[in-house]
Amino acid sequence: MTESTKNEITKFLTGIGFGEWSVSDYFDPENYEEEIDFKHPYDSIIEYLDKNGAFNTDEIVGYDSAMEFLQENDTAMVYTLRLAGDVGYSIYEIDSEILANLLYSQLRLESVEDREREIEEFFLKLQNTEEGL
């Protein structure tokens, strides 16, 4: 794989994310061919990110930070509370940090899921370009 192709993939993956988090944070350009199945890129990217803990976070620490994040992203907390219930938390186990981190993790996942078609098209185009060289 050429340096130009690696740079193109890095730029593309950097554009997929939420907040300061980016898909490219989890990939090494030197290993793209091993880490991403170019025939099934979306599935392989999701699987790789999941396996490497990209959707499990405890980055939001402290009541103030947690509440600020929740206010910015789920003011009524309806979505976040439903999410907590879906993953098995009871009302007695949750606090603002748990809720904020659950929501942050879910928003990371959704930022990739929302780009499924674009990911598939990008790698198909890239594969066709590489074959044409």
Provide a concise account of the structure shown.
It is built from 7 helices and 2 strands, in the order H-E-E-H-H-H-H-H-H. The chain is mostly helical and 133 residues long. The chain has one domain.
Question: Could you explain the architecture of this structure?
Answer:
- The protein is mainly alpha-helical.
- It has one domain.
- Helices cover 62% and strands 3% of the residues.
- The chain is built from seven helices and two strands; from the N terminus they run αββαααααα.
- It has helices at residues 3-14, 32-35, 41-51, 63-73, 78-86, 96-113, 116-132, and strands at residues 17-18, 21-22.
- The protein has a two-stranded antiparallel sheet with strand order 1-2.
- The longest helix is centred in the C-terminal third of the chain and has 18 residues, at 96-113.
- The termini are close together.
- Low-confidence segments, given as residue ranges, are none
Head-to-tail CA distance between termini: 11 Å
> Which range best describes the helical content: under 10%, 10-25%, 25-40%, 40-55%, 55-70% or over 70%?
55-70%
Radius of gyration: 17 Å
Overall pLDDT: 93
Can you tell me the overall shape?
A: elongated
Q: What structural class do the secondary elements suggest?
A: mainly alpha
Helix count, DSSP H or I runs of 4 or more residues: 7
Quaternary state of this entry equals single chain
Number of spatially distinct domains: 1
Order of helices and strands: HEEHHHHHH
Percent range for β-strand residues? under 5%
Q: What's the count of strands?
A: 2
Strand arrangement within the widest β-sheet reads: 1-2
Largest sheet geometry: 2 strands, antiparallel
